[in-house]
Amino acid sequence: MTSKIRGPKRPNLFHRPSPKDMTLPAADMVNAPPHYRRGGIEVIDVIDALGFDFYDANAFKYLARAGHKNPDKEIEDREKSIWYQQRKLNKLKAVREMTEKLREKMSTPEGFREAIAEAKDAHTQPIPTVNQRRAALGLEPLTTPDPWAPPTLPTYPDGKL
Fold first, then answer.
1. Burial state string for 8-34 with b = 16 or more CB within 10 A and e = fewer than 16
2. CA-based angle 28:31:33, to the nearest 5?
3. Coil, helix or strand for 130?
4. Nearest to 47 by CA among 88, 37, 75
5. DSSP code per residue over 52-121
6. In this structure, how many other beta carbons lie within 10 angstroms of the beta carbon of residue 149?
7. pLDDT at 57
8. Secondary structure (3-state) at 144
9. Cα–Cα distance between 135 and 67 in angstroms, integer?
10. Burial track 51-82 (b if 16+ CB lie within 10 A, e otherwise)
């Protein structure tokens, strides 16, 4: 007596699918939006593999989706990509300029001592509040309380806490 071993059902290679079998699944707009996947590669995977920072990742994302997410906004997506790259470029130039100034200053003993004193001074300065930073940028102050402001301590008539 022999027993048959049944394994998984093998696909029928000669089966011809009907049109109802050929419907495509709906796009997963949260986990795999189609405008971020072309050629089997997803934009987020490229960003992770290359280790892009915030600015480069956003510039790449906008460039990759330009004309695919919304064809009417291709120019806007390309401009947004350029905006992120320009912002990064401005930051890099500012850092380079500050570094060169510091190198020049620290090339003499007097300049070195002055730079060290300034660095120590910078650590003792209070951190500006959001409204102080907004005022420095010429923006209107926020009307809501600053969540990062130090707490104000109550005072009592005798001056003790």
1. eeeeeeeeeeeeeeeeeeeeeeeeeee
2. 55
3. helix
4. 37
5. --HHHHHHHHHHHHTTTS-GGGHHHHHHHHHHHHHHHHHHHHHHHHHHHHHHHHTTSHHHHHHHHHHHHH
6. 12
7. 95
8. coil
9. 39
10. eeeebebbbbbbbbbbeebeeeeeeebeebbe
CB 106 within 8 A of CB 99: no
Rounded to a whole number of angstroms, the CA Rg of the chain reads 30
Cβ atoms 87, 93 nearer than 8 A: no
pTM of the predicted model as reported, rounded to 2 decimal places: 0.53
CA angle centred on 123, ends 120 and 129, rounded to 5°: 150
First-to-last CA distance in the chain? 95
**In the block, residue with structure tokens 């949260």:** 30
CA 38, distance to chain mean position in Å, is 22
pLDDT in tens, the chain (161 residues): 555 666 566 665 565 655 555 555 566 777 777 776 777 788 889 999 999 999 999 999 999 989 888 899 999 999 999 999 999 999 999 999 988 988 888 888 998 888 888 877 777 777 777 778 888 888 888 777 666 666 676 666 776 65
